[in-house]
Every structure is written in C-alpha cells, then in structure tokens.
Amino acid sequence: MPKTGLTALVAVICALSISCGSAGSPGGDNESALLKIGSAEWRGGSEPRVVVDGEWGLGISTPPSCSLVEGRDGGQVSWYEPGGQIELDGRRFSQVFVRNPDAGSRSQLDPEAEYYVRCTSSGDTGKSNEALAPVEGRVPGS
Questions:
Q1: What pLDDT shows up at residue 104?
Q2: What residue spans define the domains of the chain?
C-alpha cells in the first residue's frame, strides 16, 4: 500500500536527513527510528545536570555517544561532560551530563541559551545515525 499524507512526508524527510532518528515514524517503523532521544531535561539545584534517555534500534551496531551542545547547530559545551559511562539496558540508554570541575570560569551556563543533546552511533551498514533533541526546562538556579 503506498504511503500518503503525513506518513509520506515523514518518509521523505527521513530519507533526506541523518537526524531522522529523533522523528520516528507514525507506524512504529523501526527502520526510520534507529536512534531516538525520548527525553532530555535539566535537573538539580545548585549543581545543574542534564539527564538524557533514549532508544537505539536493531540496525545500530554501536551504542550511542551523546554530547551537550549550545544552540541547535552549536558546538559541544566543553564545560559539561558525561557524568560517567552511558548506561545501557537492552536497547535503551541514559546519560547524565554534569559540570566539568576543571572548567573554571568557563563553567557558567547562559540561562537564556537553548541547549540540545546530540547522540550519534554507527549502523550495521556503516552509516552514521544522529538524533538531536532540545533540553527541556530552564537551567536550574536561573
């Protein structure tokens, strides 16, 4: 049966974009959701942290690697780092980002900035998969 309407639009967008993993598919088609960030949010008080949860599909050969970035197309926030190894539970993952204690004065978060989490991994075919999601909420303490 040919795809129509919204399903066809999602299929076209996914075919043209490596960030399709964050879009998913209305029918639950795992091929178009190889890497998905389910949530990314600010938590904490005086020591803000970002908590990320997501899923990776059967077509992924390596566990995801995630970065905290400032702005949708921004660079990695170097003064925040993963707080330990990414946690894997079957095909689910979680990652916590905490302030880098060696960052010094660079460690100030801009309460007006938008922050995102970018996760990447390699597929079975060698193709890179990427998902991007906004960090929900406001920087704690701002």
A1: 64
A2: 5-134
CA 2 to CA 11: how far, in whole Å?
11
Most confident of 28-32, 75-79, 103-107: 75-79
Count Cα neighbours of 18 within 13 Å in the Cβ-side half-sphere.
11
Q: For 83-127, how does the pLDDT look when each residue is reduced to its tens digit (9 = 90+)? A: 777 888 888 999 998 887 776 655 577 888 899 999 999 888 888
Instruction: Pinpoint the alpha helices (H) of the chain.
Output: 5-16
Spatial contact of 84 and 127, defined as CB atoms under 8 Å apart: no
Residues 6+ apart with CB under 8 A from 28: none
Are the beta carbons of 108 and 127 closer than 8 angstroms? Answer: no
Pick the CATH number of 5-134 from 3.40.50, 3.30.160, 2.60.40, 3.30.450: 2.60.40
Check the CA dihedral 57-43-68-39 and report its sign: positive
